[in-house]
Amino acid sequence: MPVYEYECTNCGEKSQRLQKLGEDSSGSKCLTCGDGILKKAFSPFGTAGLSDGSCGDERRSRFR
C-alpha cells in the first residue's frame, strides 16, 4: 500500500497516510487543527538504485 502526503488548507500541517490504491482522504478534516480540509500534496518519492549519486556512469563505461 502506498503512503500519500496531505496538507491542511487551514494550518498547513502535513500528514502522511498509508492507504489502499484508489482510496482518497482529500476532503477529510485535519487531525491537528480540526478545522481545515486535507488536500493531497506533492511529495518526492524514492527509488531503488545507486546510492552514491553517480547515475550509473561507472556501470555504463564497463559495457562500452
Strand tally: 3
The strand line-up of the biggest sheet is 2-1-3
Measured between the Cα atoms of the first and last residue, the distance is: 39 Å
β-strand amount: 15-25%
Global Rg: 18 Å
Major sheet: size, sense and barrel closure? 3 strands, antiparallel
What is the overall shape? globular
Total DSSP helices: 1
Please mark out the parts with pLDDT under 50 across 5 or more consecutive residues, or reply none: none
How helical, in percent, are the residues? under 10%
Q: How confident is the prediction overall: mean pLDDT?
A: 77
Structural class category: mainly beta
H/E topology pattern: EEEH
Description:
- This protein is mostly beta strands and 64 residues long.
- The chain has a domain at 1-43.
- 9% of the residues lie in helices and 22% in strands.
- Strands 2-1-3 form a 3-stranded antiparallel sheet, with no helix packed on it.
- The longest helix has 6 residues, at 57-62.
- The termini are far apart.
- The model has no long low-confidence stretch (mean pLDDT 77).
Can you give keywords for this protein?
64 residues, mainly beta
List the helices and strands and how they pair.
Layout: E1 3-8, E2 14-18, E3 38-40, H1 57-62
Antiparallel strand pairs: 1-2, 1-3
Give a quick rundown of the structure:
With about 60 residues, the chain is mainly β.
